[in-house]
Amino acid sequence: MSFVQFKNVRKVYKTGEIEIQALSDVNFEIEKGEFCVIVGASGAGKTTILNILGGMDTLTSGSAMLDGQEISRFNKKQLTAYRRYDVGFVFQFYNLVQNLTALENVELAAQICRDPLDAETVLRQVGLAERIRNFPAQLSGGEQQRVAIARALAKNPKLLLCDEPTGALDYNTGKAVLKLLQDTCREKGMTVVVITHNSALAAMADRIITVRSGTVEDMRLNHNIMNVEDLEW
Amino acid sequence: MKATALREIKGSFGRFAAILSIIALGVGFFSGVRITTPAMIDTLGGFLKDHEFYDYRLVSSVGWDDKDVKAFADEDDVRFAEGSNSYDVQFIRDEDNEKKVIDDADKFVLKVHSLPKKVNTVDLRSGRLPKHAGECVTDASAGLEIGDRILLTDGNEEDTVDILAFEELRVVGTVYSPLYIHWERGNTSIGSGNLSGFAYVLPEDFDTDVYSEIYVKLDNDDTIYSDDYKDFMDSHKALWEVIAEEQAEIRCERVRTDAEKEIEDGRDELKKARDEGEKKLEEAEDKLIDAKEELDDAKKELDDAEKEIRKNEKKLKKAKKELDDGEEQLAEGKEQLDSAKKQLSQSGTQLDAAKTQLDNAQAQLNIGRQQIDAATLALDASKQQLDSAGKQIADGEAQLTDGENKLAEGEKQIADGEAQIADGEKQLADAEKQIADGEKQLAEGEKQIADSEKQIADGEQQLADAEQEYIDKVYDALDEVLWMLDADQKAELLSNSLTTPEEVVTAVFGYLTSSQQTQLVEAKQKIAEGKLTLEKSRAELEAGKKEVAENKKLIEEKKKELEAGKKELEANKKLLEEKRAEFEAGKEQYQQGLSQYNDGLETYRSSVTQYTDGLTQYGDGITQYNNGKFEYDQGLKQYNEGKEQYEENKKLLEEAKKQYEEGKAALKEGKKQFEDGKKKYEEGLAEYRSGLNEYNSGRMELDKQIANAERELADGEKELDDIEDAEGFLLDRSTNVGYACFENDSEIVAQVSRVFPVFFVLVAALVCMTTMSRMVEEQRTQIGMFKALGYSNAAIMGKFMFYAGSAAVIGCIAGYIAGIIAFPYIIWMSYTLMYLKLPISIIFDPSLALMALAASLLCSVGMTWVSCRHELDETAAELMRPKAPKAGKRVFLERITFIWKHMKFLHKVSVRNIFRYKRRLFMMIVGISGCTALLLTGFGVKDSVGGFGDVQYDEIFVADGDVHFSSEDNGEPSAKLTKALESNTSAYKLMYNSAWDMLYGKEEEKVKAVDVIAPEDFEGMDKFFRFVTNDGTETVAPPEKDEAIISTSLRDRYGVKIGDELTLRELHLYVTGVFDNHVYNYVFTNKQTVEDQLDESVDFNYAFVNFPEGVKESEAAAGISQNKNVRNVSVSSEVRERMNNTMGSLDYVVLLIIICAAGLAFIVIYNLTNINITERLREIATIKVLGFFRRETSAYVLRENVALTAAGIAVGLVLGIFLHRFVMAQIVVDQVSFKTRILPISYLYSVVLTFLFNFIVNIFMEIKLDRINMAESLKSVD
């Protein structure tokens, strides 16, 4: 069985009388250690997939599995535990705690895990050894995103979910961040899922899942993996 | 724009409600507290105005009359002037009057006023107003009910009773009087000294034309206590003082003129009356003279008759006299006898007594005698005994001596005996030896005898041999001779008898040769010799034998003797043993005897002493008895003699009496005749006399009338003289207790209102500011958009201002209405305990409303403007860009690495967050501390007010009760009362106690009644009243001469300090100490000081008492109050109960404060937490995404709340202590000063309640946190 498996996932949002079907019949799987890119236009439902996969949202029907666990059956508390121990998040807007230094932001995540990595080491690995005492406001966007990645990695998760990690970054910084993610995947064997609307990024993925109108349009393995440096967009 | 504004309100109703409610709370509290004093003043002021409460009360020493009233009424500015009478009158209820014993406690004093028509009109509460004389309406709180009948007691002053036209009153209604708005009714000089209430009667019930006072109501309706009113009164004061003075003079002049005229009239009348009277009397005199003449004639006749009678009478008289003398003598005799008898009886009684005594004594004597006899006997016996005892003792002594001697002898004898026995033994031994020797000798002797016998036997043999030889020889010789001899010779020889040798020899001899002859003779000699020797031996043997036998006998005897000696010795030995035993026994006996003797001696001695004593007593008794008996016998003898004489005299007298009676009977007849004559004469005389009497009485009456009239005239003149000093007094409202007290009391809330609202306004402003600036921040992009779309700044700001303003206006209106109704209503509830129970007026004060509105708008709109201004200054583009999040900062605590290192990671985060938002920190602390301070103040007020009774009666006034009583003339309580006190208390202390007016203020212009207590000394006062300083640490020393110690209230309220001279009218005391006290204004001095300064003695009239344990206090109190001199007994525990109940109403106020505090806490905590959460929505969402559990997330956010709450509480407790002190300083209740204190439990309550509010808010917030959608964190900043 695959590491991640979505089977006939359907998600309907209900606001008053109006029902909006966000996902319908979504099926895909991701193998362990893969670098997967989910690509799609805005509103295609990729964030919903991420929310479900990240244990932040529930699905209406179908099943979502990770590493043999059916996360779609988890209750609230189990979902929290799942987020806590199994998943790492990287957001578009970094979402660092402004009142904590880079190191403390990493520690914030690390100190609730079972088997965390050393915060300082992780920060060094993402190339921020010099800035660990700085507050987020004192860091550039790329540096902030790297702190965010370090925070996600420090939890030593099974799965790293990244929502438009380069969305708020300039081209070069974005590339550097993507490189970091790819390296993490390659070097640590971490399963990384990146969500983006930028199909150019798909070239660096092991697996490409294309989402459109709330369903998976296409899922394929990339046999021609490009290095991040070679990507152009 | 408007649409967005309304939708905004709908969308963020929580925020809107926060602004609205904080404004409502602030405004409500502010306006409520502010309006309470005016509302209270309006309530009572309205009442006073409706009932035309006086402006001036005019009093003059000569009173006033209708003319004066009119004169005052005619002055400018006078609306009404009305004369009034009021007198203190003591009453008793009709039903109480029927009781057998009227208790002083049943009597009560009312101030009886004439029912006014214009000024100080009464407010009828029930029943109706009096319509007829003898009806009254009374104080609603005097305890009288409609239909009660009350009677005058005899304890009223005479002057008062003269004026009252009633003896009893019937209660027809109850009223409120503007003169008595306070519960205190004041003091009076009669009865118990306290007024129980007032009563209004119709003016007709006062039998006088004079008014005791005139009440003037000026034409002014300014609010009471207002500056307008004070100014108005000030402007009239000088003028009215003159008016009063002048009118008093006019009145005085009029009184004087009237009096003078009256006196003049009186004199004229007197003269007229005198003349008329004289004339009538003269006529009567003439008539009388005629009658006298007639009578005189009749008299003469009678006199003659009388002379005769008199003669007879004289005789009789003589006889009578004799008789009388006799009788007198008899009487005397009798008297003497009686006296003698009396004496005798006295002495009899005495004797009886004596006799009884004597009898007793006799009996005793008898007993005594018996005893004496017995004693004598006993004495004799005892003497005998003693003697015998003495003798015995002597004997005993002798015996003892003998015994001793004997003992000595015995000892000696024993010793001798022993020696003898020893000798005897020796002798015995010797004797035995001798016997042994004797036996030996005997044995030898026997042997010798045996030998001798043998020798004798041998000798006999030899003798026999010798004889044989001799015979042979003889015969041989014969034979030879015969042979030789011729036969004649032979026949001649043979002719001789030759039978015996001798005859042979004789016969032969001559024939024999000489040798033969010699041989024969020799043989014969030899035989003779042998025979002799043998004989001799035989004799010797016999002797020896005899000796041996003797010896043997001797030995036997000796042996016998020895046996006897031995026996004797044994006996002696035995005897000696016995003797020795005897001796030992004797010795023991002797010892016993000795101790017995000693005991006996001792007893003997004591017996001798007893005996001697007894003898002396006996002798005394006998002497006494003999004396008594002698006296008695003499008395008896005298009495008997007297009696005998008396009897004789009586007999004599009887005879004389008989004679006299006969004479008397004769005289009687004569007298009867005379009597008839005399009767007639006397009738005439009586007529004459009655005429004379009439005349005299007429004359006397005239004189009396004249004298009375003259006296009255003199009195009138004197009064007239007195009038000259009359004066008029102008008294204003401040002399009315209720009016004066209420000014102070109503100020309390006003004072408090100066502080409390500051909190609320401050908090409201802060809440508005944070809320609005958050809102502006949130809507930053929107503002930018509006701006970009071309809306003016004003229009954009308008939206926010509308938002805040509408919240403020609604909140303000709601708060204002709630505040002005609830606050005065609740606070007035506690005031109605002291003042009239009037419904509180609700005042709508437009200016206050506007002020509140202005303040709330300033808080909301003003703060909105402040927050908006900066934002709007920025360009649209800047606004549309997200505002850079507030940078993180290190806090001071991080520098202290020691603490920082040891903190948990999440705690560090909280610490940093707390200090990140300074404004929120400040606000939170202000809000929470305000809440805690309010709670603490509320509870503290309750502790202080509710507990002062406990403190007073547990720690200060520790006496179980006190007693008011009246003393005897000597200033001491009556014996009965003393007994009652002693039997019903475990301890009590007598004191002098009275209310004195204390003069205080800069020029001693103000007056306050204080309770002066003056014991003789302060010894043992500790059991009743403890004098300690305010903080309870030091004991206040009792006052010395001319010194006083005062209660704290006098210092705190009237500014009397240690070292001041305290002026109590005539008393001037030097203040040496201030002691903690909460009920009544006490001044303690000593009785001597009061007496010295007043120069008269004062009575004990008050006592502190402690009831004995195990006795019901009420029973003990009743036991004391039964005494008729006791005016009142109050039991401390009951007083305390009453006080605590009274002050219990403050619970409402405390509740009000708690509700406000809770509201404040809720609003502040809720609002701030709310802002905190919305501001940090992304952060919280991120945290949740990171996998913080629900509890961890709440803790992450709310930990800050708890910390800030804790900090706020800490500040609040400190603040609360000061606030409480301030509030307590404002709460001034007459006669009572509160113990400013906060109990530990109140601190706990305040802290716990604040935390509870925080906790409740946190629960709401947790729900809110739970609802935060994590997807939020994914959203871009918009």
Topology diagram in text:
The complex is a heterodimer of chains A (about 230) and B (about 1300).
Chain A: E1 4-15, E2 18-30, E3 35-40, H1 46-53, E4 61-66, E5 69-70, H2 76-85, E6 87-90, H3 102-110, H4 119-125, H5 141-154, E7 159-163, H6 171-188, E8 191-196, E9 207-212, E10 215-221
Parallel strand pairs in A: 3-8, 3-9, 6-7, 7-8
Antiparallel strand pairs in A: 1-2, 1-4, 4-5, 9-10
Helix pairs in contact in A: 3-5, 4-5, 5-6
Chain B: H1 2-11, H2 13-50, E1 56-60, H3 66-73, E2 78-84, E3 86-93, H4 94-97, E4 108-114, E5 123-127, E6 135-139, E7 149-152, H5 158-163, E8 168-176, E9 195-201, E10 213-218, H6 227-484, H7 487-495, H8 501-509, H9 514-723, E11 728-732, H10 737-753, H11 756-778, H12 780-789, H13 793-831, H14 846-873, H15 876-880, H16 892-895, H17 897-901, H18 905-916, H19 918-956, E12 961-965, H20 975-984, E13 987-1000, E14 1006-1015, E15 1043-1047, H21 1048-1054, E16 1061-1064, E17 1067-1075, E18 1082-1084, H22 1087-1094, E19 1102-1106, H23 1113-1121, E20 1126-1131, H24 1132-1143, H25 1146-1175, H26 1177-1185, H27 1190-1226, H28 1240-1267
Parallel strand pairs in B: 4-9, 6-8, 14-18, 15-17
Antiparallel strand pairs in B: 1-10, 1-11, 2-10, 3-4, 3-7, 5-8, 6-9, 7-8, 12-19, 12-20, 13-14, 13-19, 15-18, 16-17
Helix pairs in contact in B: 1-13, 2-10, 2-11, 2-13, 2-14, 2-25, 3-6, 6-8, 6-9, 11-12, 11-14, 11-19, 11-25, 13-14, 13-25, 18-27, 19-24, 19-25, 19-27, 19-28, 20-23, 25-28, 27-28
Task: Provide a descriptive summary of the structure in words.
The complex is a heterodimer of chains A (233) and B (1278). Chain A has 233 residues and is an alpha/beta fold. Chain A has 6 helices and 10 strands. In chain A, helix 6 (171-188) links the parallel strand 7 and strand 8. Chain A starts with a strand and ends in a 12-residue tail after the last strand. The model of chain A has no long low-confidence stretch (mean pLDDT 86). In chain B, helix 13 (793-831) runs antiparallel to helix 25 (1146-1175) and helix 19 (918-956) packs antiparallel against helix 24 (1132-1143). The relative contact order of chain B is 0.09. The model of chain B has no long low-confidence stretch (mean pLDDT 80). Among the domains of chain B are: 1-53 and 727-746 and 770-827 and 843-874, no CATH class; 86-207, no CATH class; 917-958 and 1136-1278, no CATH class; 959-1135, no CATH class. By secondary structure, chain B is α+β, with helices and mostly antiparallel strands. In chain B, a hairpin with a 5-residue loop joins strand 13 (987-1000) and strand 14. Chain B contains 28 helices and 20 strands. Chains A and B meet through helix 2 and helix 3 of A and helix 18 and helix 26 of B.
